[in-house]
Amino acid sequence: MIGLKKRIQELGCKVDVANAEMEEVKCIKETTEQELKGNELQLALNEASIQTLEARISIIQDEISSVGSQVEGLKVV
Fold this sequence. Notes:
Elements lengths: L1 H75 L1
InterPro entries: KIP
């Protein structure tokens, strides 16, 4: 009987340790998920910035081409 009580106490301690470890892992998981969401948001913002810059570059290239054509037109005259 005493042996069973001791075994129950040992198992209770192991359960307590396992529960503490599980809570720690849950916190790590939650932190990791929050970091992932932050990184996904940063990625979306970076992609939007890239698209904006690509559009600006395209407009500038069109303007350069237009000015180049005007310069060539003036050279002919």
